[in-house]
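Project outcomes to date are best conveyed with an example. Our students and postdoctoral researchers have been running inverse folding experiments weekly, and each run begins with a structure described purely in tokens. The record below, which covers 656 residues, was selected by the lab manager from last quarter's runs and is presented without edits.
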């Protein structure tokens, strides 16, 4: 699935208020040149590095001095200065977008602070680790570290630290789409920064409130918040923060459908970003420029900036970087109780409420789709009647038919929005499936392929399905399938995959008035339905015509389905069977419709076939999930060439 949500905003919005005051770099250079002892040299170099970071936003210069400071300190004898220098270095690597180095520094800062039992330094390290987990979209774990900060800052009566911690707690709610909780924490942070007269904190909190207003589509309020932040960053001569804030403004202008203003804002931000040396901010600005040029139908420029976005994104998110972050986390086993029981209960309540709201949306969406289909039939019938007119009204009739056709396509486009709305939101997918990707490419505006996710206790249920047909008929069937799965699992509490498929088949047959053996009403669907328990490393799978593949250590293990659809068959159907599959850490579970393998293309215009799909997956299974999705998409486009897409395409991968 490529529908971006707020989680694809620039990761630099996880900024924390600075703990050092502004100083003049020239005077600090003089201080550094006069220092004799290693500790004094390290302290002066650290102050100079932070001055470059905070005053000018020159990240390369800042990191150079911070690394020099670390080289002058004894890492075997922990001190407050060592912990603070690691923390500040982590902050600068994070701002530059080198997240593995940032996490490494934060972990070392925490280790030093714990050995000397320094609460303030521990809080700073907790905050940095929380931000690192937030970057990985592990918001609950990030929030746990932020609450550790709050406890320490309350103990120390550190109002500035408290304000920064509440800001980051707000961000964790914001990215989980819990906007009311986010706004409450942002506002509390802003009020505390204002009482502290902390301009950096005021600018940071204002930006985040602006992002929230953008999510609410209150665009002018969002721009007003950015303007307040930008005024502060300019007064501080902080070019990196100016670039980030202008990027937020450009993103908001795109959302407001003001692409030319977005382009002008992006170009100003790009100059500042290059001066600051922030690769991640350049990446995001290329993305905003691509969107704006696409809105203006300047496709060559849109493609150029999209390619630049992908190039920079690949350089920041390559496989080696992700492996290093995993190794760093494993090397420091700081895994005490991650959440208080009350917080776990709160999260569970939120999940249940979200599931109930989803269910309501599914049912409302079904009613609306039915209404649109009826309207579609009425429009077509009216068009047919108009064609019966003759003579002097032919020209007028042609114009009216064109207008009606536009209405039809507008209705179908709106139906696509409704179908998209019934799919699980991005934040739900990341809370339930965790490390995953979804490649979803409809053939027409509305799709007959769909995916579905639900959670009950320790079980995560998910399905990939291929309905009969595509376009509006397939979309109608996908709506039926989604609604019925929610009813069976969420209302009837059926948890065995085979039993779920049996009951789903009964409902499909009943609703469509199908009759076995009649040779009529071939409508139905093929489906993979799985129940995943990651705590027990167990997958229970039932399939209607579609298999599950599990790639483990480079070898593909195939689990075959029942050779029957969810719908009528010529012969009386057999009950669906299920398979219990033990999993191992690192396994990747793949499920898909037949659209990818059936696509025609290549030098001879033949089908892609499952053998080639298997080869692509085995060759790339070690890559991060986002890269796997990209490889599948690029391979499909290269194979397809100039040929038409023949069917809806859906591929899902989940890493255990």
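After processing, the design step wrote out the following sequence:
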């Amino acid at each position: 699935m490529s529908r971006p949500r707020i989680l694809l905003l620039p990761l630099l919005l996880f900024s924390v208020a600075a703990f050092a005051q502004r100083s003049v770099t020239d005077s600090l250079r003089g201080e550094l040149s006069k220092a004799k002892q290693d500790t004094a040299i390290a302290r002066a170099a650290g102050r100079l590095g932070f001055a470059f970071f905070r005053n000018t936003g020159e990240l390369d210069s800042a990191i150079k001095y911070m690394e020099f400071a670390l080289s002058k300190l004894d890492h075997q004898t922990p001190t407050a200065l060592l912990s603070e220098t690691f923390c500040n270095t982590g902050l600068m690597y994070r701002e530059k977008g080198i997240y593995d180095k940032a996490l490494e520094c934060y972990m070392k800062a925490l280790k030093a602070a714990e050995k000397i039992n320094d609460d303030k330094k521990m809080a700073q390290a907790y905050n940095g680790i929380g931000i690192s987990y937030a970057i990985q979209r592990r918001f609950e774990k990030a929030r746990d570290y932020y609450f550790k900060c709050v406890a320490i800052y309350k103990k120390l009566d550190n109002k500035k630290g408290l304000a920064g911690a509440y800001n980051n707690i707000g961000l964790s709610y914001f990215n989980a789409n819990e906007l009311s909780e986010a706004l409450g924490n942002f506002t509390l942070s802003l009020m505390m920064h204002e009482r502290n007269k902390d301009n950096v904190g005021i600018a940071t909190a204002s930006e985040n409130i602006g992002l929230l207003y953008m999510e609410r589509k209150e665009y002018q309020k969002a721009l007003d918040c950015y303007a307040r932040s930008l005024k502060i960053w300019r007064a501080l001569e902080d070019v990196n923060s100016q670039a980030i804030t202008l990027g937020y403004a450009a993103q908001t202008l795109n959302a407001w459908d003001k692409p030319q203003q977005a382009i002008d804002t992006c170009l100003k931000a790009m100059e500042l970003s290059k001066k600051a040396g922030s690769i991640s901010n350049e990446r995001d600005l290329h993305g905003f420029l691509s969107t704006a040029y696409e809105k203006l139908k300047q496709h060559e420029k849109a493609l150029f900036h999209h390619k630049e976005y992908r190039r920079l994104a690949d350089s920041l998110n390559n496989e080696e970087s992700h492996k290093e972050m995993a190794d760093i986390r494993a090397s420091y086993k700081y895994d005490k109780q991650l959440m208080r029981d009350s917080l776990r209960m709160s999260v569970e309540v939120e999940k249940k409420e979200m599931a109930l709201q989803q269910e309501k949306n599914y049912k409302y969406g079904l009613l609306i789709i039915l209404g649109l289909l009826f309207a579609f039939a009425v429009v077509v019938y009216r068009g047919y009647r108009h064609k019966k007119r003759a003579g002097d009204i032919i020209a007028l009739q042609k114009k009216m038919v064109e207008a009606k056709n536009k209405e039809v396509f507008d209705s179908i486009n709106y139906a696509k929005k409704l179908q998209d709305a019934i799919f699980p939101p991005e934040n739900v997918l990341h809370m339930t499936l965790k490390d995953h990707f979804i490649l979803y490419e409809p053939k027409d505006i509305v799709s007959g392929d769909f995916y579905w996710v639900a959670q009950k206790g320790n079980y995560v249920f998910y399905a990939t399905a291929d309905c009969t047909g595509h376009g509006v008929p397939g979309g109608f069937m996908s709506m039926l399938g989604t609604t019925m799965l929610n009813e069976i699992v969420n209302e009837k509490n059926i948890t065995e995959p085979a039993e779920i498929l049996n009951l789903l088949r009964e409902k499909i047959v009943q609703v469509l008035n199908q009759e076995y053996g009649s040779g009529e009403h071939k409508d139905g669907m093929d489906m993979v339905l799985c129940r995943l328990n990651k705590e027990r490393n167990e997958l229970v799978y039932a399939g209607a015509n579609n298999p599950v593949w599990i790639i483990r250590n480079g070898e593909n293990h195939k689990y075959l389905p029942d050779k029957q659809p969810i719908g009528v068959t010529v012969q009386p159907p057999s009950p669906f069977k299920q398979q219990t599959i033990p999993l191992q850490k690192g396994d990747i579970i793949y499920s898909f419709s037949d659209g990818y393998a059936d696509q025609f293309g290549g030098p001879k215009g033949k089908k892609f076939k499952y053998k080639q799909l298997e080869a692509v997956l085995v060759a790339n299974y070690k890559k991060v999930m986002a890269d796997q999705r990209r490889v599948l998409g690029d391979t499909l486009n290269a194979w397809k060439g100039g040929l038409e897409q023949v069917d809806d395409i859906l591929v899902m991968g989940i890493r255990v």
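DSSP finds 23 helices and 13 strands in the chain. The longest strand covers residues 524-533. The training component of this project remains on track.
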